[in-house]
Amino acid sequence: MCGAPKQGGTLAGIDLSTQTVIQGSVWHDGAPVAGAYVRLLDGTDEFTAEVVTSPEGEFRFFAAPGTWKVRSLAAVGKGERVIDAEVGLNETTVVIE
């Protein structure tokens, strides 16, 4: 079965000195958005990965260091955020307008 992996949970066991983690949440009107599709696009806007937010609106990607675009698509609208990710934990919030 194809589909985005379940989101949420801890980073226990992940070596943040060697991994680049981009994680955060999607919000709309002051509340988290569950079930939103979150896409990770590279510096040329090329699609790299997609996940579905957790019930708490959370998402997580493992990526290479660099500039990434995080784009969210939900029934209530869309939003995006550019992030310059470094090795370690990189957190962001995507606000749907």
Tell me what you see in this structure.
This protein is an all-beta fold and 97 residues long. It has strands at 20-28, 31-32, 37-41, 47-52, 58-63, 66-74, 77-85, 88-95. Strands 1, 2, 5 and 8 form a four-stranded mixed sheet that branches. The radius of gyration is 13 Å and the shape is globular. The N and C termini lie far apart (32 Å). 22% of the residues are buried. Mean pLDDT is 89; it is low at 1-6.
Question: Which key terms come to mind for this protein?
Answer:
Immunoglobulin-like, 8 strands, single chain, four-stranded mixed sheet, mainly beta, 97 residues, disordered N terminus, four-stranded antiparallel sheet
Instruction: Report the portion of residues in β strands.
Output: over 45%
What does the oligomeric state look like here?
single chain
- Rounded Rg: 13 Å
Q: In the CATH classification, which architecture applies?
A: Sandwich
Q: What is the H/E order?
A: EEEEEEEE
CATH C-level label: Mainly Beta
Strand-pairing-aware structural class:
mainly beta
Percent helix range: under 10%
User: What is the typical, i.e. mean, pLDDT?
Assistant: 89
Counted beta strands: 8
Main beta sheet, described? 4 strands, mixed
List the helices and strands and how they pair.
Elements: E1 20-28, E2 31-32, E3 37-41, E4 47-52, E5 58-63, E6 66-74, E7 77-85, E8 88-95
In short:
This protein has no helices and eight strands. With 97 residues, it is mainly beta.
